[in-house]
Every structure is written in structure tokens, then in C-alpha cells.
Amino acid sequence: MVLRYAAFTDRPEGGNPAGLMLSAAGMSDAEMLAEAAEVGYSETAFLRARGAGEFDVRYFSPVAEVPFCGHATVAAGVALGERDGPGELLFHTPAGEVQVRTDGERAGFTSVAAHAEEVAPERVAAALRALGWSERELDPELPPRIGFAGARHLILAAATRERLARLSYDFEALRVLMEELDLTTVALVWRESAQRFHARNPFPVGGVVEDPATGAAAAALGAYLRDLELVSPPAQIVVLQGADMGRPSELIVDLEAGQTGVAVSGRAVRLR
């Protein structure tokens, strides 16, 4: 049975919906993809229990498998916590081992080792063309990078909140570029303050125009801020996403000194 939860919110009309199959033993890749397409959310997570709080977890969009999905991980953590009680879990994902903590309506994960890497200027220019952005609309203090925390995200920082609010892009052109760069989303952000960011995440490679809450991208943003020395661990970042879609979401990013992974947490609520 597929469960449906909205992650990074405490209201059914907020956050990012995720499908969950807490017992997917025996399902083939084709069956999981077909189920994810039927559910129609940006991702559905499929869990197979190993025992002792450990699970094999795979994530499928309606059109393809993705290596890691943060909002479905938080949703699964809350669902398992409601079923089994609070505690520590270990998810074995295609991206690697992910520690998950669940406590009531909240759950969080610590990503695999995360980092930021430079991206060729011509690739940035191609992304800007697809988005309909100009280079002068970028924040010069937040240079474009690819962030990784289990999946790859191109991070582009808008100079103004108004630029972030206007999202209308060439779906096919951005999809092709993302496939060339092995990206899961493009993480568009605006820095309100050193600890508070607004984000939007186009997801054409998953067959979705935009994601209302993207935990993996929030973790990648944390790695970006840490690696560019824009924050000093320990630090906490609040990422606000989904408001422009009418599905407001709040993601909490924690960076700990000496830790290579990035922690992301939030609430989740069952939809039906």
C-alpha cells in the first residue's frame, strides 16, 4: 500500500508530497517506476527492511530513479516513527548510507559526504539561457557551483527576491543540460540573511516543473555555504521553499564542525 505524506510542513496543503511504500520487498525496478508514475508525486520511496532499524531505500520520480531524495526520506522517517516509535534508523540508498532520526512529527537525516564543485562558465550560461535569466541578475557574492549531498544540484543565487519569484523556463532545454551534467535539480536561491534562504527547484529530469521542498538540495546548499566559507560550523540555516507555488515549506539545515555530511530536518504530515 502506498502512503502519502507532505514533508517539511505541518499542514497537508504545504510542503512536498511524497509517496511511500514501507514494504517494497519483491518489487522490480519496472514495478517501482510504474507505481511512482501512478502516484504522480515528484518522488516515491520504496523501502525494504533489513532488520534492526536498517532499510534498503530507493527513490523514483514519475519518469526515472534518483539516487537520493530528502523530502521522501523525512516523510519515511516520520511514517516509520509513527509506526514503530522514535529512534535512530539507517537507510541504505543508491547514494550511500544515510542516518535518519525520527521523533513524532519531525524527522531528519544526515547526508553522505557533501561538497561543492566548480561548474564551467559555458554551462552556467546555458542554464541561464534556459531559465531566461541574465548574468547581472545573479548575486555576485554567491558564485554558481554544483552542490552534492547524495545528488547533484546546480546552485544559482538570484540577486533579488523578485527575480526568484519569476520562474518561467524552457523545460526541454533545461532538462537536456541537466542530463548532460547529471543534475537532479537546479537549486535557485536568494539569500535573505546569512542564516535564511529562499529557494525554488526546477526538476524537469523528473518530469516535474518545480519541487516545493527539496531536502537533498538543501543539504547541497549547506555544503556549498560551508565549502565557500560563507558560514562557519556549527551553524544552522533555514531554507524557505514552495511559497511561490502555494505550498510553503521550511527546511532546517545543520552544519556540524568536523562532519562531512549535512543534516536536514523538518516536519511531515500524512495526507491520507
CATH superfamily of the largest domain: Diaminopimelate Epimerase, Chain A, domain 1
Mean pLDDT: 97
Number of helices: 6
Strand content bin: 35-45%
The parts where pLDDT drops under 50 for at least 5 residues are none
The CATH class of the largest domain, by name, is: Alpha Beta
Q: Largest beta sheet, briefly?
A: 8 strands, mixed, barrel
Distance between the termini: 12 Å
Q: Which structural class should the secondary elements be placed in?
A: alpha+beta
**Rg, alpha carbons:** 17 Å
Tell me the series of helices and strands, N- to C-terminal.
Answer: EEHEEEHEEEEHEEHHEEEHEEE
| Helix content range | 10-25%
- How many strand elements? 17
CATH structural architecture of the largest domain: Roll
CATH fold assignment of the largest domain: Diaminopimelate Epimerase, Chain A, domain 1
For the largest beta sheet, what order do the strands appear in spatially?
1-2-3-4-6-7-8-17
In total, the number of domains comes to: 2
Brief summary of the model shown:
The longest helix has 15 residues, at 70-84. The protein is 24% helix and 38% strand. The protein contains 6 helices and 17 strands.
Topology, please?
Elements: E1 3-7, E2 16-21, H1 29-39, E3 44-51, E4 54-60, E5 65-66, H2 70-84, E6 87-93, E7 96-103, E8 106-110, E9 115-117, H3 121-131, E10 145-148, E11 152-157, H4 161-165, H5 171-181, E12 185-193, E13 196-203, E14 208-211, H6 215-227, E15 235-241, E16 249-255, E17 263-270
Parallel strand pairs: 2-3, 4-6, 11-12, 13-15
Antiparallel strand pairs: 1-2, 1-17, 3-4, 4-5, 6-7, 7-8, 8-17, 9-10, 10-11, 12-13, 13-14, 15-16, 16-17
Helix pairs in contact: 2-6, 3-5
